[in-house]
Fold:
Amino acid sequence: MKPLVPALAGLAAVSIVGSSLAAPEPRPAAAAPAAGQDQAATYKAMFTRYCVACHNAKALTAGLDLGSVDLNNIPHNAEVLEKVVRKLQGRMMPPPGMPRPDEPTTEGFLAWAQAHLDEAAAKAPDPGRVVLHRLNRDEYANAVRDLFALQVSPAALLPQDDTSDGFDNIADVLQTSPAFLDQYISTARTVAISAVGDAKMRSSTVTLKPTPGQSQGAHIEGLPLGTRGGFLAEQVLPAEGDYQIVIHGSKTFNYDYVTPDDRFVATIDGKLVYDSAKDPTPPAKVPLGVAKGHDFAFKVHLTGGAHKIGGGYITPTYHANLSELTPYKVSTGFAGPTVVSADLTGPINPVALGHSPSRDAIFSCQPKTKAEAEPCARKIIASLTRRAYRRPVTDKDIAPPLRFYRSGEKAGGFETGMQQAIMAVLVSPSFLYRTTSAPKGLAEGTAYPISDIDLASRLSFFLWSSIPDDELLKAAEQGRLKQPAVLKAQVKRMLADPRSETLVNNFGFQWLHLEALDTTDPDPNIFPEWDNDLR
Structure:
């Protein structure tokens, strides 16, 4: 019972204030029963005097019959007594205006009941049931990030998860349909190709857009000083080669905020790669489309892997037109030149695959001869499955992805084989589902403490919405994670990690329903400063 008490402290404080209007029954205070007295009989009499008039078998107010509660059998009546303790702690019962026991009697009952409830719970814990828990799409994307150093868009790859009470990680509603499985198989293929890379892949176009809600009138951290607005996006390129970037911009004239000599500059990984003042030629001859006003185009040679691509306008002046007076109008945001989108096309003339964060995360070895290929593949697969399945693995776990590797290796060589093996891992139930391993020989319905391995997964998916890292998994494999000092140290370390921001971005937003901000439009007469930038 004790862990439930602090969580209700705020509610209890409010209830105490409300209950102060009802004075206790005007009678001499009765002291709490001494330790040697029959406390169960004393508190049963308290129930009869103050509670049973409403909470009886006939009235069943709030669904409670306190007249039939046997206080000599706490375990059998634990659920009812938990409710009674909660109400009495906040002095929410008896209702205002009704007779109530004096403070010593109330405090004595609370101490006696909580002690017996704790004792009963320790002897027969009821942790509830654990069901098969599919990774939701955010957890999937985070796991891919931690496995392959690869950022993917969960919304672009996987269908929307069902929610329960606003949360999208409730196991009972995370169903799996045939259509869902098709989507996961398609996503596994996309992730495997992106992680390993494909020097023979065809050129394709990806559209990059400014972050929703990003002010086009403010500087974006990471772009050159002096720029306003624009975009900055991280994109994983599948192979080294030439890439063409076309910027689609627009200019509005609601206010004379800018001058005609606006410059657009673009950067890749913080280095300047384009300046419209030096290359003002519009992309009229670019086969991707026709230039429209503030459109710019340029080509760059890039390696495979993750790159930060961005750009923005440099506006030398930024002033209001004071040549005429206009009626006051609620601001609708920045009215200067803006970036609408950017088209990234490539690789054009791809070359051999080199280093990238995802390839470095996968290929812990590279075979130099055909004889070295399968031992190297086995080593990579063993490491990958251990992290993806979040537990020590056996030859039985390694066998299925190894079969896929052999099939792919015959068709296209070592790296094609590794792509196939990664696909097999990502569609395995051991990766897609979280579960709890019960000890062998345990009778059905028996409660048991979870293993260190299962505790590691619960901890990482709660704090990070992702898989355990190597340090956490090692502590679990060594059986040390349940040690209080080790557990405390791991929690502090994990909270200090940037991945713990998911507590705000996922849990916090869902708990407080902050996603409603996207559709909220306050009354402009009451909140004249409200706009998309503030949103």
In short: Residues 1-37, 253-259, 283-292, 318-333 have pLDDT under 50 and may be disordered. The CA atoms of residues 224 and 270 lie 8 Å apart.
